[in-house]
Amino acid sequence: MKVDLHNHTPLCKHAVDEPREYVLAAIDSGASYFGFSDHAPMKFDEAYRMGFDEMEIYEKEVLALKDEFKDEIEILLGYEVDFLDGFMDERVLNRKVDYLIGSVHFINGWGFDNPEFIGEYKNKDIDKIWEDYFYCISALARSGKFDIVGHLDLIKVFKFLPKKDVRTIAKDALGAIKKANLVVEINAAGFRKPVSEQYPSNLLLEELVNLDIAITFGSDAHAKDQVGLNGQKCEDIAKKFGFSKCACFKSRDKFMVEF
User: Fold this and answer.
1) Which tens digit of pLDDT belongs to each residue from 50-61?
2) Residues of 82-118 as b/e, b for ≥16 C-beta within 10 angstroms?
3) What are the φ/ψ torsions at residue 249 (nearest 5 degrees)?
4) How far apart (Å, rounded) are the C-alpha atoms in residues 144 and 188?
5) Is residue 70 classed as helix, strand or coil in its secondary structure?
6) Closest by Cα among 152, 147, 206 to 182
7) 5 near 35, Cβ under 8 Å?
8) Is the separation of the CB atoms in 234 and 186 below 8 Å?
9) Which of 73, 158, 186, 206 has the most CB atoms in a 10 Å sphere around its CB?
10) Cross-strand bridge partners of residue 137
11) Torsion (CA) 136, 141, 143, 145 in degrees, nearest 10
12) Contact 26/4 with Cβ under 8 angstroms?
């Protein structure tokens, strides 16, 4: 990936290896822009994110790496923020960063992508689950708080797929993303999950093309050996749909990069 904006650090409590090792892996993978966007703190599900008192540690480390490797790669600073009404915090949203990724990991408090809670799928109608998920994505887009939508169809992670056409289910959310001028990432982590494909699916990528919605890329790495993993595959998929440029950010300002 020439542009790789979604990557984590051990501060989130479920990633391993040092940030410096991620940068070295990014350089080795051929990346030109590499962004850290670790899970932002909030008073919810605190076992899987940094604390508010660790934000300064995180930012200082990323900025130190930015300076150390400035002649080899452009390091960017961001956060991945869970879209959760009542829990998103201005201390995060007003941070001086390059970008914010907005993601949905919870539906009415249910951590649907956590294997610990996978049993809940059999208790609900699968189409209703998908509709509720994309309702949250619509609200995320309308909130005006973010630059990038993370893993657009994460709800497919365990391969519980809807009976209805996903394009119909996602239509309103995609319209809200377009109206908000948000970027959608092509996230490689799906290849490491039971669904075994990128986020978003080919059907949704086709809709992004039809709506002229910009894309970017992310490894969603939680370990150094995941940096750039399946990145070429993601770029090739994007090119197949006619994309030749992807979005990158500096100080919340978007610019486009050829890949």
Assistant:
1) 999 999 999 999
2) bbbeeebeeebeebebbbbbbbbbbbeebbbbeeeee
3) -140, 145
4) 25
5) coil
6) 147
7) yes
8) yes
9) 186
10) none
11) 120
12) yes
Q: Which letter, b or e, does each residue of 227-252 get, where b requires 16 or more Cβ atoms within 10 Å of its Cβ?
A: bbbbbeebbebbeeeebeebbbbeee
CB of 35 within 8 A of CB of 7? yes
Sign of CA dihedral 173, 39, 100, 201: negative
Measured CA to CA, the distance from residue 181 to residue 142 in angstroms comes to: 10
| Under 8 Å between Cβ of 2 and 259 | yes
Whether this model's pTM surpasses 0.90: yes
Residue 74, SS3? Answer: strand
Q: Which residues contact 211 (CB under 8 A, 6 or more apart)?
A: 174, 175, 177, 178
pLDDT in tens, 162-184: 999 999 999 999 999 999 999 99
Nearest to 184 by CA among 155, 139, 146, 152: 152
**Rounded distance between C-alpha atoms, residue 131 and residue 17, angstroms:** 36
Q: Which residue is listed with tokens 């490894």?
A: 219
